[in-house]
Design brief:
There is one protein chain. With 188 residues, the protein is mainly beta. The protein has two domains: 1-36; 41-183, lipopolysaccharide transport protein A fold. Helices cover 14% and strands 49% of the residues. The chain contains one helix and twelve strands; from the N terminus they run H-E-E-E-E-E-E-E-E-E-E-E-E. It has one helix at 3-28, and strands spanning 41-51, 57-68, 75-78, 81-84, 95-98, 101-104, 111-122, 128-139, 144-155, 158-168, 173-175, 180-183. Strand 9 (144-155) and strand 10 (158-168) form a beta hairpin. The N and C termini lie far apart (102 Å). 18% of the residues are buried. Keywords: Cell inner membrane, Cell membrane, Membrane, Transmembrane, Transmembrane helix. It comes from Lysobacter antibioticus. InterPro entries: LipoPS_assembly_LptC-rel (IPR010664), LPS_export_LptC (IPR052363), LptC (IPR026265). It holds the Pfam family LptC.
């Protein structure tokens, strides 16, 4: 075989390998040519205090992992714990809100919690208030929360279940449309 024939075989093999490498890389991207956006930063085992526009604590966030979308400037959080303090002179204790997943808007004015959401606080008398649902949207700047899915609210002597929720986290006033209420006698 001449050197030209050998060179032709080597070039054909290189072209075939290049084509195979490009083809296999395409499969990793889902076949549509797009690559998944990488977060511009990741936090592990952290605590962050988020301030509102007046420079006062809006909420504190603790979680094992947070990623930030570089394009949208939003945060995705794994198993978050949000601590929402009462306003000055507020009613009762702070809210502790847990879920499997969380999302925070770029401005920090909306928090979407998904999966086994539990919100716990106390009223002015120090009695427990517990809310459980699968989805809860919290608006820290206005101290409001909403949910469009089934919700369960437990207060001493009362269990309310229904679909949907409108809550003022400051006054602890909760409205649940289509509610079913069960009263339980106090233990003596």
């Amino acid at each position: 075989m001449s050197w030209r024939g050998m060179l032709t075989l080597i070039l054909m093999a290189a072209a075939a390998l290049s084509g195979w490498a490009l083809w296999s890389q395409r499969d990793r991207n889902g076949g549509d040519g797009r690559t998944e956006a990488r977060p511009d930063y990741v936090l592990n085992q952290f605590e962050a205090v988020v301030l509102n526009k007046e420079g006062k604590e809006s909420f504190t966030l603790r979680a094992p992992k947070l990623t930030r979308d570089p394009d949208e400037k939003t945060l995705d959080v794994t198993t978050p714990l949000f601590l929402i303090p009462p306003k000055a002179g507020g009613n009762g204790g702070p809210w502790e809100v847990r879920s499997q997943r969380g999302w925070v808007s770029a401005e920090g004015d909306e928090v979407r919690l998904r999966g086994q959401v539990k919100a716990d606080s106390t009223n002015t008398a120090g009695k427990a208030i517990n809310i459980s649902t699968e989805e809860l949207n919290v608006f820290p700047d206005t101290n409001k929360a909403t949910s469009a899915v089934p919700v369960r609210l437990i207060q001493p002597g009362t269990i309310m279940t229904g679909s949907g929720l409108q809550a003022d986290l400051e006054t602890k006033n909760v409205t649940i449309p289509n509610v079913k209420v069960r009263y339980e006698a106090k233990a003596r």
